[in-house]
Amino acid sequence: MTEHQDRPVIAIIGAGLIGRGWSIVFARAGLPVRIWDPDAGLRRALPARIAEMLRAVGMAEEVCEQISVFDSLADALSGASYVQENGPEKLEVKQALFAEMDGIAAPDTVLASSSSALVASRFGEGLKGRARILVAHPVNPPHLVPVVELCPSPDTAPEVMDRAEALHRRVGQVPVRMSREIDGFILNRLQAVVLAEAMSLIGQGIVSVEGLDDTMRHGLGRRWTLMGPLETIYLNAPAGVPDYLERYGPMMAGLADSAARGEAFTAQTAERLAAAFPPADHVPERSAQRDAKLAALDRHLRRYDTED
C-alpha cells in the first residue's frame, strides 16, 4: 500500500511509551498500524498495554483493532509507506537500525525517527536512502500533546518533508516544519532556556519550587496554552509587535542578557528540587494523573479550535 492510497500503512518500530503513543495517534485516525519491538515479552504485552493507555484517558478501545503486532522487523515494514522509529537514544543503535530499515523498506517508504537529540544526518549518513530519512520529534505523550517537529537532514528530499507534514496533519497532529538541522530542534531549545532560568531562581533562593511552577502553570503556561510567545507580545501592546518592542524591548533584552545559562544545572539545585516532590515511586501515579488532565485539555482545545 502506498502513501497515495486512502489508508496508508504505518509501521511503528520500538514499542516503548513513545512508540505506543504513536500507534494510538495513527490508529485512532483509522490508519492500519504495524508495530514491532525487539523484546518478545513486550510484543506479547502490547495489546493489553495499549488498551490500558486508551482506557486511562477515555479513548475508545476499538482503536486497538487498527493495530497489529509483528514478530520481525521485516514483517512490520512490509507494505508500510511511513515508518516512525522509537529506539533508544544511542547513535550506534539508530545507525544500525536505520541501515537495516533502509535495506528492507520499499524505496518510497518514509523513515522518520522520534529522536529528541540526535539529528538525522548522524544516523542516515552514507545510507542509500538517506533522502527519505528525517526526524519527527514528538512531545511525550504524543497521543495527548499534538506538536511534532519535522527536522530534515541536508540530504532529506523536500517531497519527503511534504509527505510527512501532510500525514501528520491528516492524523490530527500539529507538524512544525524546520528548514534545517539544529541541536535540540525547537521545543527542547526553548525548554532548556526556561529550565536554566528556573533552576537559577530556585538555586538563588528567590522563589520556592511550588512558586516557580505556579508562575508557569497559572501565568505564562495558561496564556501559552492558547497562543505562543510571539502572538502574546503582538496582543500585549496596542499597536502590535513594533509597539511592544519599542515599549519593552530594552527591558527584555537586559533580562535576557542576565538570564541563566548552563551553569544553573547544579547538583545542589537538583537536591532542592528533589526534596520538593514526592519520592520517585509516585511517578507512575502522578504521570497517570497528568495524562488524564492532558486528555481533557486536548479534547477541550480541539473543540475550541473547531468552533473558532
Short description:
The protein is of the alpha/beta class.
Write up this protein.
It is built from 12 helices and 8 strands. Strands 3-2-1-4-5-6-7-8 form an 8-stranded mixed beta sheet, with helices on both faces. The model has no long low-confidence stretch (mean pLDDT 95). The protein has helices spanning 17-28, 40-56, 73-77, 91-104, 120-124, 158-170, 187-203, 209-226, 229-235, 241-258, 267-275, 283-307, and strands at 10-13, 33-36, 67-69, 82-85, 110-113, 133-138, 147-152, 174-177. The protein folds into 2 domains: 10-177, NAD(P)-binding Rossmann-like Domain (Rossmann fold), CATH 3.40.50; 188-277, N-(1-d-carboxylethyl)-l-norvaline Dehydrogenase, domain 2 (Orthogonal Bundle). Helix 5 links the parallel strand 5 and strand 6 (133-138). Helix content is 52%, strand content 11%. By secondary structure, the protein is an alpha/beta fold.
List the helices and strands and how they pair.
Elements (H helix, E strand, L loop, with lengths): L9 E4 L3 H12 L4 E4 L3 H17 L10 E3 L3 H5 L4 E4 L5 H14 L5 E4 L6 H5 L8 E6 L8 E6 L5 H13 L3 E4 L9 H17 L5 H18 L2 H7 L5 H18 L8 H9 L7 H25 L1
Parallel strand pairs: 1-2, 1-4, 2-3, 4-5, 5-6, 7-8
Antiparallel strand pairs: 6-7
Helix pairs in contact: 1-2, 7-11, 9-10
